[in-house]
From TrEMBL:
It is an enzyme of class 2 (transferase). Coiled coil: none annotated. The gene is dltB. It is found in: Cell membrane. It comes from Peptostreptococcus canis. Pfam families: MBOAT (PF03062). This is Teichoic acid D-alanyltransferase.
Length: 382
């Protein structure tokens, strides 16, 4: 039997049972790390099973560890070798995304996208000199860490390693880990099993036609459904991580009060947007400035935003609506940059009514993007 992570009550019941020893260890000021490593293996097996998915996962781990350790041994600053390693690290994910087109049944298991980002991140940090030493079991634990296996958030290896190897006093654990973790876990349960479930019922009742009213209804309902579903998953993952002694980074922070799209991406899927910002956007901008082929910094930023968000769309899947969603978000960021630089915006930026209008307009830009992302428009073009 394969369980859906945070997706059913049986999983939550098992999660409660395996969390009890972690709580006891934390209160008694014992390191939770080794127990958590064991439970991670158990929960991974319960989530993906022991059939082909598990074999693919073992092959993925073996492949990535070879790449990480050989690149660490090289510690080269040769950019060509570095890029080859990045491509090789992403190869399982690339094959996974191409499987529907190649009609293959390879490299498929729950969480491959998030795991790939973790392994690529380590290679990049080795290249940048930010990772000075490797611990085999810490890396395996980081890649497989069960609370964030299938839904994120995406953590950073150095921060994660510091957390799992730090000493936590009983009072600190109770106040800054256990109590916060329980609150976040229950918040996620309410978001996922109450709000998202109710919204899904209403979505299911939308008439199956091509009317503008159905389109608008679906757009609003799907936007809120996706938020409560995904924010619910994330909150449960973060809460579980806290209970197991890890300060998993936040993933959502009231995204629908954003005044513009730049602010939105500091509030929505925060860990992913920061990952893309640090490892794609910033690196592209720095490389472009050094090459000096594009003279204006504004143009470099604009191209970087388009590249970053399009890549994010492709990461979600090789379907037209995911790619269109990425391009849409890139264009939205470029237009936002242009607009906030205008005299009109600067003149009215502190006006409350103007700010409310910004939130209203931004919300609808968000909603239309979610409509694209949902694939619902297929019925209009099909």
């Amino acid at each position: 039997m394969i369980l859906s992570q945070y997706g059913d009550y049986l999983y939550l019941y098992i999660l409660l049972l395996v969390s009890i020893p972690a709580v006891i260890l934390g209160i008694r000021e014992k390191n939770i790390k080794y127990y958590a490593m064991f439970i991670t293996v158990v929960m991974v097996i319960l989530t993906i099973g022991v059939d082909s998915q598990f074999r693919y996962l073992l092959g993925f781990i073996f492949w990535e560890m070879i790449l990480i350790y050989t690149f660490y041994r090289l510690r080269t600053k040769n950019k060509l070798i570095f890029r080859i390693y990045i491509i090789l690290s992403l190869l399982p994910l690339i094959i996974n995304k191409l499987m529907p087109f190649l009609k293959l049944d390879l490299v498929g298991f729950v969480g491959i996208s998030y795991m790939s980002f973790k392994t690529v991140q380590i290679i990049i940090d080795i290249f940048d000199g930010n990772v000075k030493e490797l611990d085999f079991f810490d890396i395996i634990y980081f890649i497989l860490f069960f609370p964030t296996l299938s839904s994120g958030p995406i953590d950073r290896y150095r921060r994660f390693k510091d957390d799992i190897n730090s000493s936590i006093s009983s009072d600190d654990y109770i106040e800054n880990y256990l109590s916060i973790g329980i609150k976040k876990l229950f918040k996620g349960i309410v978001y996922k099993f109450a709000f998202a479930s109710i919204l899904y019922v209403f979505m299911d009742k939308i008439p199956n036609d091509k009317s503008a009213l159905s389109l608008i209804m679906y757009m609003y309902l799907y936007t809120f459904y996706l938020f409560f579903d995904f924010a619910g998953y994330s909150s449960m993952a973060i809460g579980t991580g806290y209970i197991f002694g890890v300060h998993v980074p936040e993933n959502f922070n009231k995204p629908f009060i954003s005044k513009d799209m730049k602010e939105f991406w500091t509030r929505w899927h925060i860990s992913l947007s920061r990952w893309f910002g640090d490892y794609i956007f910033s690196r592209y901008v720095l490389a472009a400035m050094r090459n000096r082929k594009i003279k204006k910094k504004k143009n470099i930023y604009r191209i970087g935003q388009i590249i970053t968000m399009t890549t994010m769309g492709i990461w979600h899947g090789l379907t037209w609506y995911y790619i269109a969603y990425g391009v849409y978000q890139g264009i939205a960021l470029v237009l936002t940059d242009n607009y906030i630089g205008t005299k009109w915006h600067k003149k009215n930026a502190k006006n409350k009514i103007y700010q409310y209008l910004q939130v209203f307009i931004t919300f609808h830009i968000i909603c239309f993007g979610m409509l694209i992302f949902s694939g619902y428009l297929n019925r209009f073009f099909g």
